[in-house]
Design goal:
Layout (H helix, E strand, L loop, with lengths): L1 H25 L5 E4 L2 H13 L8 H10 L6 H7 L17 E2 L5 E2 L16 H17 L2 H7 L1 H17 L2 H9 L7 E6 L6 E3 L13 E6 H4 L16 H22 L1 H6 L2 H5 L1 H9 L3 H21 L4 H5 L8 H11 L9 H15 L7
Parallel strand pairs: 1-4, 4-6
Antiparallel strand pairs: 2-3, 5-6
Bound molecules: zinc ion.
């Protein structure tokens, strides 16, 4: 009998402890996974062969060129050279999630909303037709064999990158800062040929096999800034750039719903585009005022996190930037008013205060 009382007490204690532990674990948040996406690799291999795109350099490029040498004049490679818009670091690579069901690769039919404003420069029909040729390239060249042969290498990059996330406590730090749940799973795609990093907060069902996710393209070139990169085997070990990349790009995940819920206040500040030529220039380049402000807030928070982690000095963290022109002053406001133990429940509770303080710094001038 004694034993049963003890066992019951133990069980109750265990249950209570478990329940106490649950809310803190359950609050945040959707999973973060790191991967090398076959669709992205396929497109970038074609772009490398076409000699018309900027790509990051490493020994991987030589392996690609060697392996695919017989297909340098494949219709997909020739089509890449003739696209109506130059291939950039993010476009049309950002649409590579339209390829799915690897190894039996398929191509989804993209809709206008997947183009994220780029349709002005490259019509949807053109992208879709080009991607069909890329799918044919995958079949003709047996791309799947190349991908499988490199799977151990891809796996080691994923492991190194995940180890860096843990070692630098990047996810815990950003979670603790925003104190908001991540509603969507996050996919960090390692792009060894990619020259730029970017985030897509909403893939809007770009393919039928994919639940919506927040996608971050991690560019190898931005992690490894060295002259001898072409002669080096690519690695995804943590560098000083990893924190910049993860904190900035993941910041957009937390900010997307905050911006959606505070759109009227954000729109009221759009007069800045009319009175500040730099804001006008960058807002136009970045798909409008709201997106541009989002970039500045994501970077301001990144600066604050680096300052608090001791990897930036105060002067560096609060300095402005050629593109993120408001990030320094936003960082100063955030650092001053949004301390970990401050009165705000989370970053969203503070966000309207931040916008008001920012507006005070930039009053609307008359006649604008
Ligand atoms: Zn950004």
């Amino acid at each position: 009998m004694r034993f049963f009382q003890f066992a019951a007490r133990f069980l109750l204690c265990f249950l209570l402890c478990f329940l106490a532990w649950l809310p803190s674990r359950a609050q945040p948040t959707a999973a973060v996974r790191v991967l090398v996406h076959p669709g992205t690799e396929l497109l970038q291999i074609i772009h490398l062969l076409s000699d018309t795109a900027q790509v990051a350099e490493s020994t991987y490029n030589a392996e690609v060129v060697r392996h695919f040498a017989p297909y340098r004049r494949h219709p997909a490679v020739l089509a890449a050279r003739r696209l109506s818009r130059a291939i950039s670091c993010d476009y049309p690579v950002r649409l590579s999630w339209a390829f799915y069901d690897f190894p039996d690769l398929k191509l989804a039919t993209m809709r206008p909303e997947h183009l994220d404003g780029y349709e002005q420069e490259m019509p949807l029909a053109e992208v879709q037709a080009y991607f069909r040729q890329c799918l044919q390239f995958a079949r003709d060249t047996r791309f799947v064999e190349f991908y499988h042969a490199h799977a151990p290498q891809y796996g080691s990059w994923v492991q190194e990158f995940e180890a860096g996330l843990k070692q630098q406590k990047l996810l815990e730090t950003i979670d603790r800062f925003y104190r908001l749940p991540r509603h969507r799973p996050v996919a960090l795609t390692l792009g060894v040929l990619n020259c730029g990093s970017y985030a897509m907060s909403d893939l809007r069902g770009i393919n039928p096999a994919l639940p919506n996710q927040h996608t971050v393209l991690v560019s190898y070139r931005q992690l490894v800034l060295s002259q001898d990169a072409p002669a080096k085997a690519p690695r995804f070990r943590p560098t000083a750039q990893t924190a910049q990349l993860v904190w900035h790009e993941l910041g957009h995940t937390y900010l997307a719903p905050v911006f959606a819920r505070h759109q009227p206040e954000i729109n009221r500040l759009a007069y800045l585009v009319r009175q500040d030529p730099r804001a006008k220039q960058w807002a136009a380049a970045r798909g409008g005022w709201s997106n541009f402000l989002n970039e500045n807030v994501a970077q301001a928070v990144t600066n604050v996190l680096k300052l608090r982690a001791g990897t930036l000095t105060q002067a560096e963290a609060l300095a402005s930037d050629d593109f993120y022109i408001y990030s320094g002053e936003l960082a100063a406001l955030i650092e001053h008013h949004y301390k970990p133990a401050a009165r705000y429940k989370n970053f969203e509770a503070y966000f309207p205060v931040l916008l008001r303080a920012f507006a005070k710094n930039h009053p609307a001038t008359a006649a604008k």
